[in-house]
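Protein of interest.
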Amino acid sequence: MPRIFIFTHQCQTNGVGLSVVKGNIQWRLAMSGCLIRRSLPTKVLRHRRHLETTGACTICGDGTETWVHMFFECPWTTQVWARLVRCGFPYWLAHTIPRDSHGLDFIVNAPVGMRFALWFIWLERNNKVFGNPYNSPFAVVKEILSFFQWWKDARLRADRLMDGVSHDIMPKTVTWNPFYCMGMILHTDGSSMGNPGPSGFGVVLHTHEGVWIEGISGNIGIADNTLAEVIAILEGLTLAVARGCTTLTCYSDSQEALRLINTATVPNHVMGGLIMNIRDKISSIANLRFFHIWREGNSVADRLARRGSKEEAFFTTWAFPPDDLLTLLAKDAAMFPYPRL
């Protein structure tokens, strides 16, 4: 039998440690102070003080590097805001900020979430300007959302403690790819309305950056949830093999299905044929790992599985994602931290 690596997802909390927060707080205060004094060191300001030969933006080279251009108009910055918009960031209405001196006052007194976003944009711009290693807009958005979620969790815990309620466990979050695996990512899920009842499966294959490759949904009639989960894994691996995947990470929210694949005695098991087919597919993929994931991080496959349980067709291929999945996919691409319910 091929060797199968299965990892159980016990705890996943996206966030930033307190030591990192304390280490950066003085720089946030410095940036806020510069904004208040109208002395943020943009190239326009340095050019005005004869410290630069030009006021053009260091990154894009097209615009004049004012604070408005840095935070909102530079093409690199607009990519960050666009990704935040797609994943439902609460303070995304950047275009409503006054583009004059009053805008600086707005930023200094802006909601905490927007200040986090501005801080990470400012940090990455400095890294790019001074030739230090810097992150892509995708990674910057992930940092902003993770830090914002950490801050909300910390506030929630503080409020509960102030109310005299003891909570030893911080609220946990999970992303669609909580172990930050590279290569191709496969999400599978089964759905049973009644257990047993009308059942379906959902499969999503995408890159590690969240780019949709292909999806599958289907109806399997009356079945229980475990059978639906096993069929979903089989269909997902079949798709991966057909696509020529050599490095694959498979996420499933069913610990029972993963246990059956790894340990079941096939000849004596009611799903022995399915399990043997799965193991055959496993042997066809050079580098394959299975992870258990919380259901909140498996939302796209779950949506397809529920759709499949209501369809008449046994098998539907999705070359492009259905419209009702676009918001979820955008959040996944930005590594949005879903709260564990």
Observations:
- The chain is about 45% helix and 15% strand.
- The CA atoms of residues 209 and 333 lie 6 Å apart.
